[in-house]
Amino acid sequence: MSSSRPSSEMESYIAAYAGHTRLKRLQFIAQHEPTLRAEALRIAVEQARQGVNTALYQELCATEGCPVARDDAWVDSVEKKASARLDKLESDLASHKTSLVKESIRMGHSDLGDFHASRGDFATALKCYVRTRDYCTTSRHTLSMCLAVVKAPPTTLLHPLPPQSPSNVSPFISKPSPDAVLTAQLRALTALEAKKFRAAARKFVEVSVELGTTFSEVCSVSDVALYGALCALAAFDRAELSERVVKNSAFRSMLELYPEAREIVHDFHSSRYASCLAALETLRRDASLANVPPSAPATRPRHALVQYFSPFVAVDLCRMASAFNVEVDSLEKEIAALIMSGCIPARIDSQAKVLHARHADQRNATFVKALATGEAYMRDTKALLLRLNLLRADFAVKGSGDSSGPSKSSRQERAEARAFGGA
Amino acid sequence: MSLADLVTVINDLSAASQFNQLLTHLQSQEEMMIQQLPQLDEVLPALRPMEHSLGMVFILKAKAAAVPLSNLQAVHTFLQQCRRLLLEGDPVQVQMVPSHFATVCAKFANAAVAIAAPAAALRPLQHAAQVLQPSPAHFTPVHTEVLRVALLARHYPAAARLLDASDLLEVAKEKTGVAPRDLLLYHYYAGLACCGLHRFSDAVRYFTLCYTAPTHVVHAAMVEAYKKCVLASLLATGEQPAQPKYTALPIQRYIKTGVPAYSELAEAFATRSPAELRSAITKHEATFARDRNLGLARQCVGALVRRSIRSLTQAYLTLSLADIAAAAQLESPAEAEGHVVAMVAAGDISATIDEPQGMVHFSESADAFDSPGAVAAMEASISGAIGVATKLQAMHAQLCTDSQYLSRVMRERVQSRWEDDGMGMGK
């Protein structure tokens, strides 16, 4: 949130979310935005009272500057009701299990999972949802199970998931399912969780605006636009970016919902790196990006650098630095790293601060490579020939008994083997 | 039967070229020779190595077990007697008794080492190795002895000559009396000799051959070879040695945990920080010193610096000495300058230093592959590769007609056909 945002904007922002995610977003705003803290906390506490998540309620009330006093009586009564309901659900499940009806067992597990999720115990909820896996009979069941698993940790967007969940989910999503929008969304999120930005970007751009509010418990449509744009920047090259993002009408309408993200993509696409980087810098302070940055910023400027240099034979590093809005020295280091990793075919004239494109000497390179390949071939083939001969002659080193040659004591030999070490 | 009679028999049968008969006779007389040890010295001068190799091998074998290495006089006599045989022996006769001959050679080498004159044993042993070989591609235990003696004499070029002369790819237990252990030590010594000559990539090759040999147990030589292989590989390529898939399981398991000092050294090298590398070396100094690897380990520091500087030449056309020092994590520009000068002198990189400005100008590598030398090297490499491919073809042809192989393949084919039928009936 940029600091100037008024509270009305917060309300419209928050309206895009529901359930636990909404609470968490509000809590995040309260933590990072002093001017909106009281308002955010008030809404959050109200929201929390409608649910049964007493732990979060207490946490919210305990936050500094909370305008609402804690209602202990309410907490007690909810706790009592919750434990009674837990007992009932568990006994239900047990009776279903004895009756061996698959569908009932699935429902039982699912209900138990819903209960834990509403209480804020997502680890247990996840366990319950994953248990339903064995009792799924149709693909719709499987899909609802996957959805439940993704929804279960609504911390998705603020904290990395427990590592086991994406791996749990992904094998099942691959099955054909009736709801294409949801599937694309699911795949994108799982890929994002696994830090596979390229796959995530592909899936995000497949999501269309029709997603609407069906997924508001986890994220809003504009979030999809933002994540999609960022993942695309991190993973796609220029051609792919233009084809899949800029010219993709479905995703463009999505981007319209998040103008900042749209600006960044267009800046990048039309090579206005400085404004692109500056916009990214402001975005990074936003809550929802807390999960994305770890590797995205590392790869993004690299893409930009490679793309910037591609049409030139020689580039003045100072001008390049001003285009990227960075120091010349740090730019030089970054480019040197890129050259060493083989991304840019160029060499730096550090004295004159000029980057020269390198004309690869194909002939020389071919000679060097041919010689190296020949040598490797000879080395490996000889080793294999020797090995074949050894195996044919049954020439393996066995126990100490047969390894000693004629009249040589192996111990003496070992001592001498040591003695040569200084060579 | 007395020794005089024995000499007569040797003379007569050798003259008649009835070596098989002589061999049987000598084998029956081994006991007697050992009983009459003191007189053997008097008999030997009467025999000529070219004609009476078989007899000499038996007599010297009998002596070899008994010569005390502490008695200088006895050792000298033994060396003299052996020299004649090793330098002039007849290949046909010698190859009839490979293990006896190998024993004599081993004792000869030990004797030369005992009087601190390993260099004197070098030439006789080199010749003996050739005499014992059924073909130039065969291993013999004597080859191992040659390398050992060459190493002890610190005469690395002699070892290199033996290694470069031909590729030893064949083993024949009966014909040469070679044991798996000889092979391990041969490759281990070969690696050491290459380290001594600073031919580290060759050293890696030999050490790898040593520790990847087929084995059921972990042999001390293999462990030592792996340790040195790590160091040589860091020096040659800057990376850990690539372990071939076929490395025996016990070895794979052992080196995963058994050599922590070397694994840590390689990890420190991978961080590209000389300070970390130095601290890793200091931490395990005792281990390296015990394994006699401290010298190689210390060379790694220099190799790391050179590697960093060389990678800079890829990225930069000009770079100040101060920046080089910073990038390679050296202490001062002066130190960087020293390294650059040494590397240019060694032909590692091509660069010029602008002293007043403190700038280094790197130029691309000079070798344009347009000299007769380059063509010759290329041709040598091609013909080498063709040679190896021919060997491979020959072995393939040989295996294709191998009765054991064929019968096995046929059996498998028949079996699989049965299984197919079973499947078909099931359907």
UniProtKB/TrEMBL annotation, chain A:
Domain PCI: 290-374
Compartments in which it is found: Cytoplasm; Nucleus
Region: Disordered, residue numbers: 399-423
Pfam families, A to Z: CSN1_C (PF21151), PCI (PF01399), RPN7 (PF10602)
Gene Ontology CC, one term: cytoplasm
Entry-linked InterPro entries: CSN1_C (IPR048624), PCI_dom (IPR000717), Rpn7/CSN1 (IPR019585), Rpn7_N (IPR045135), WH_DNA-bd_sf (IPR036390)
Bias kind Low complexity: ranges: 399-409
Principal cellular location given in the protein's record: cytoplasm
SUPFAM superfamilies assigned to the protein according to its UniProt record, in alphabetical order: Winged helix' DNA-binding domain
Keyword terms, alphabetized: Cytoplasm, Nucleus, Signalosome
UniProt family annotation: Belongs to the CSN1 family.
PANTHER family: 26S PROTESOME SUBUNIT 6, COP9 SIGNALOSOME COMPLEX SUBUNIT 1
UniProt name for this protein: PCI domain-containing protein
Native organism: Emiliania huxleyi (strain CCMP1516)
From TrEMBL, chain B:
Keywords linked to the UniProt accession: Cytoplasm, Nucleus, Signalosome
Chief location bin: cytoplasm
PCI domain span: 199-367
A Pfam family hit: PCI
Presence of keyword Iron-sulfur: no
Compartments where found: Cytoplasm; Nucleus
GO CC annotation: COP9 signalosome; cytoplasm
PROSITE patterns the record matches: PCI
One annotated GO biological process: ubiquitin-dependent protein catabolic process
Signal peptide from the UniProt entry: none
Keyword ATP-binding part of the UniProt annotation: no
Entry similarity comment: Belongs to the CSN3 family.
Name of the featured protein: COP9 signalosome complex subunit 3
